Amino acid sequence: MHYVIIDESGRFADPNTKAIVFVGITINSLTGLDKIIPKVRKKIPLKGTRKKEFKLAEIKFSTTGDKTRKTVLEEVNKLDIEIYLLLIEPQGRKVKDNPENYATLVAKLLSQILKKNPKLKHVIIDRHFTWIRQRELFNELVQKKLGKLLFIEHLDSQQNTVVSLADFVAGGIRENYTKGEDRWRSVIKNKIVYERKVTWKDLVKQKR
């Protein structure tokens, strides 16, 4: 696989967060991926309880209903992809939302992806940080941790819906873990090739 799309679900710096889920979707071509979310949006009825979804600036797992979530995940399941999952349990600890911590988690996920995809060069990630310097520092840290040069592209999911595909997977997996809700995971379970659960405490020890 030549590309990976990364996004996460869960709140940093919130001690009540049960889990932060990072998702990596690997694929050989991006062709047509940007058409999936617009296609799903067109299917949303203009009347009834779902009409408000049609007007959303961004269709995300957290802002849509069950039918839209299922439709997006079914479209994801049709793709020739592999899904990698990293579940972090804060266990009541605050995880500072900074480039250093974010890079640690993304590099942890990428290290597993690269084992199976050594030719991977292009990383697409949801634009998590506002400032350019934060994104540059994140890029530097990830590549340093991995010892590999990668093209890391930070995309605004409102402007490029490719990132939204990873958002729906991350949201569905997090609901499975935090609420025992299996209906979203069951749609894409056959695409999952790697899944690991770690505590933030253990990750901090590894960093040291």
Distance between the termini: 32 Å
Strand portion:
15-25%
Order of helices and strands: EEHHHEHEHEHHEH
Count of helix runs: 8
Largest sheet: 6 strands, mixed
How many beta-strand elements? 6
CATH topology: Nucleotidyltransferase, domain 5
Give the strand line-up of the largest sheet: 5-4-1-2-3-6
CATH homologous superfamily title: Ribonuclease H-like superfamily/Ribonuclease H
Which CATH class is shown?
Alpha Beta
Which architecture per CATH?
2-Layer Sandwich
Average pLDDT number: 92
Structural class: alpha/beta
Overall geometry: globular
The parts where pLDDT drops under 50 for at least 5 residues are: none
Structural domain count: 1
**Helical percentage:** 40-55%
Radius of gyration: 17 Å
Give the arrangement of secondary structure elements.
Blueprint: E1 3-9, E2 20-27, H1 36-42, H2 51-54, H3 66-77, E3 82-89, H4 99-116, E4 122-126, H5 132-146, E5 151-155, H6 162-179, H7 183-188, E6 192-199, H8 200-207
Parallel strand pairs: 1-4, 3-6, 4-5
Antiparallel strand pairs: 1-2, 2-3
Helix pairs in contact: 1-3, 3-6, 4-5
